[in-house]
Design a protein that fits this description.
The chain is mainly alpha-helical. A 3-stranded antiparallel sheet has the order 1-3-2. The chain starts with a strand and ends in a 19-residue tail after the last helix.
Length: about 150
């Protein structure tokens, strides 16, 4: 499971970490445990040990929140920065478009099945081939989200 901590998300969304945490606390019902959790002291120590010597003021004395992909998306709906608003608008557009695609796909599938019932067995091969084309392999689904500058994600 990929996780992102609050400090990094605050930077991404253009808000202070304290403002992000405040909005999460005000909207805690939007963040179930599969969206976000607060790190334990042990987890935070392990995380900090990866960064070597601490610089003054660089690490919070408070335990950070860790967010899953769903939590990152939910943050865009509770934060009020320009970037968070734009991300939220894009999310709505993508889900609306996905819904339209699914509906169109289902309508086409129903039409083909209806035609298949009307015609005799000689066209069965054609209809089977069309149905095969309608099945979208999972590997062709594009990931939604942010990419790192070097393109690794």
């Amino acid at each position: 499971m990929e996780l992102t901590i609050d400090k990094d998300l605050a930077e991404l969304y253009g808000v202070k970490t304290s403002a992000l945490k405040r909005q999460v606390k005000r909207n805690i019902e939007r963040f179930p445990e599969d969206f976000m959790f607060q790190m334990t002291r042990e987890e935070y120590r392990a995380l900090r040990s990866h960064f070597g010597t601490l610089k003054r003021g660089e690490h919070s004395k408070y335990l950070p929140y860790a967010f899953t992909k769903h939590g990152i998306l939910m943050l865009s709906s509770v934060l009020n920065s320009k970037r968070a608003i734009q991300v939220n608008i894009q999310i709505m557009r993508v889900f609306t478009r996905l819904r339209e695609i699914v509906i169109t796909h289902e309508e086409l599938k129903k039409k083909i099945e209806s035609m298949e019932r009307k015609y005799d067995q000689q066209f069965k091969i054609v209809f089977d081939a069309i149905k095969t084309l309608l099945i979208t392999p999972a590997s062709n689904i594009k990931r939604i989200g942010f990419r790192e500058k070097d393109g690794n994600k």
